Amino acid sequence: MHFFNPWHDLALANFGANYTPPASAMQMADDLALLPLWYGKGDAVIADGEAQQLFLHDLKVMLPLTAELISYSEIALRTGEPVIPWGWDPRLRKMMLVLGAEEHLLPSMAELEQLRCYASREHAVRILRELQEDESYFCGESIYFTRIENLQAYLATTPGNKVLKMPLSGSGKGLIWILGEITDKQTDWCRRVLREQGGIVAEPILNKVQDFAMEFFLQDGKAHFAGYSLFSSAASGAYTGNQLLADHRIEEILSDFISSVLLHQLRKRLAVKLTVSFPSYTGYAGVDMMICRTDEGYRVQPCVEINMRMNMGMVARSIHDQFMATDGQGRFVVDYFKKSHDAVLFQQKMQRESPLSVADGKILSGFLSLTPVTADTRYMAYLEV
């Protein structure tokens, strides 16, 4: 049973079963509830509503989707079936228990505490340092501070702009940008994060050329490479979308900046380091990276952060591999609409301008909304192929 819960990172940061996600996270959860259809491999997806059922019915006419939808009230009836959410947190565990899920199929609170430790950016800081010890081609600097005085000294004595990161946050959240000197407001933010999360990550702002990621699946104490993600982000660091390309095509694009031999070596090293670092974790882990322009030419920042959960890069990877031709290409986008009806108007416009073409269960070209769109939709996932 798959369940989409985009508040995962926030809930881990605010650890506790009684944490209430902000309204924006709940809106996203409602709007994108059917996103697991595209990566769930035919499993049941938890989502209520007739509109959701009609949407899936229409999709199955065109594409070989094998998933089914179940309501929240049916969770208790699905004995023996594990719940596979976007990412686990105490709030979701409590919610599933109330809805009748079998407790032995859910992670314990101790296991969730372990997951919270695994999700800290402190691991990315350490793994970046270890990778750089083995390979001079890797750039970047990441330092974990636990005292405000040490952080202030670093900011005062290190030239250039910086980015500060909460240890527990993700998807471009929990960041502040220090452009020149740190302000009083930013210092207050630092004190609060140190008090609540115990540390802060500080990094110089690099001259980024391209975002990408390596995706892994960890199971039975071993990490396996699951594919590449070529994505884009806003100036704030927030995720904006993925390129839909075969893995070999992504490698070709990246090889304009970094040799494929080095990429393969990095894959192997990361698989080993993830295996050693997260021995009791089962699930996806996406390691975000950057191609950067430096005085010595192009270099790779090989471990910007590690996303210990399902992620949009793996959604894009799954969609391309299952529903597009090997040489197919396009964009996967998660967009936000401020006003009611804007998503509907956008969908209608795109359907007119880029009608969908499907043959033999593969998307050839055009626009496709991956989730239902109504007058109340604010978040929308879609493809342009």
Your description of this structure?
The protein is 35% helix and 26% strand. It has 385 residues and is of the alpha+beta class. It has an eight-stranded antiparallel beta sheet. Strand 15 and strand 16 form a beta hairpin. The longest helix is centred in the C-terminal third of the chain and has 18 residues, at 260-277. The chain is globular, with a radius of gyration of 21 Å.
Question: Which overall shape is indicated by the principal axes computed on the Cα atoms?
Answer: globular
Class derived from helix and strand content: alpha+beta
Report the count of strand segments: 18
State the end-to-end distance.
29 Å
Radius of gyration equals: 21 Å
> What does the main sheet amount to?
8 strands, antiparallel
Helix percent reads 25-40%
Summarize the helices and strands and which ones pair or pack.
Layout: E1 2-3, H1 8-13, H2 23-31, E2 44-46, H3 50-62, E3 68-70, E4 84-85, H4 90-98, H5 109-118, H6 122-134, E5 143-145, H7 148-157, E6 162-165, E7 175-178, H8 184-197, E8 200-204, E9 208-219, E10 222-233, E11 239-244, H9 247-254, H10 260-277, E12 283-294, E13 297-307, H11 312-323, E14 330-336, H12 342-353, E15 357-359, E16 362-365, E17 367-369, E18 379-384
Describe this structure in a few short sentences.
This protein is of the alpha+beta class and 385 residues long. Helix content is 35%, strand content 26%.
